[in-house]
């Protein structure tokens, strides 16, 4: 899909927090490496926000930001201002690094990808000895915000345009990732966190999903249809996300984390 970095970055602080939480799980010297001995890939680097955090934490490391979106990479080059990072446009489903990596970090990407059962083992194979695979993916597809998109997209009105785009379960159960990675990992931690984001604005959940899960659906419609779909969607989820006493909206969002050492 065509990404809109400015819409995605509207909730930059909230979207970055899981990356910080995952980063905290990674040791100071992944695979025993530091400085220029350390090779890191930020897989699905998007606008470079997380790449910059990786760069700040592991200064001197060789860092590559990989993404399939030209728009995101343009933003990353512009915003992150990191001369030391190499940016690489590639499709993750086919990507393999030239050299073994000591840390492959992937924040908020895997729920966009099919065939985790193929890609994750391949990434483990792309690590050097004791290398770390650190992944965070949204596991929020049961939330009212996401279910409402899928239900509307499969409705009589919208189904002819949108039904083929529905993917209700892009992320597996935590135990499925255990079975997949336990045979390949010397150390493996898998956990979920439910974040309670408190968001400002009139319809912040609509704004949030416009930058992510809703985007491919909106892209498939013309301007007039898009407006009608957004109105239907806003009305459908209003009751699920009422304003709190202080006027903010609490958006509960579940995420799945994987930390695996080869
Ligand atoms: C939600 S953004 C996350 C960006 C960044 N990791 C962050 O945390 O801010 C997801 C990113 O994954 C990228 N992506 C999704 N599928 C991809 C694929 N098959 N190959 C390469 N990049 C992909 C998108 O282009 C997008 O930049």
Task: Give a written overview of the molecule.
- With 262 residues, this protein is α/β, with parallel strands linked by helices.
- It has a single domain (5-261), classed as Vaccinia Virus protein VP39 (Rossmann fold), CATH 3.40.50.
- 37% of the residues lie in helices and 23% in strands.
- The protein is built from 11 helices and 7 strands.
- The protein has helices spanning 5-8, 12-25, 49-57, 70-80, 116-125, 144-153, 159-162, 174-181, 204-210, 215-219, 223-238; strands at residues 39-43, 62-67, 85-89, 101-107, 127-138, 187-199, 249-261.
- It has a 7-stranded mixed beta sheet.
- Strand 1 (39-43), helix 3 and strand 2 (62-67) form a beta-alpha-beta unit.
- Helix 2 (12-25) packs parallel to helix 3 (49-57) and helix 6 crosses helix 11.
- The chain is globular.
- The structure holds S-adenosylmethionine.
- S-adenosylmethionine is lined by residues 3, 15, 19, 44-46, 49-50, 67-69, 72, 91-93, 107-109, 112-113, 212.
Features:
23% strand, binds S-adenosylmethionine, single chain, alpha/beta, Rossmann fold, 262 residues
Brief summary of the model shown:
With 262 residues, this protein is α/β, with parallel strands linked by helices. It has helices spanning 5-8, 12-25, 49-57, 70-80, 116-125, 144-153, 159-162, 174-181, 204-210, 215-219, 223-238; strands at 39-43, 62-67, 85-89, 101-107, 127-138, 187-199, 249-261.
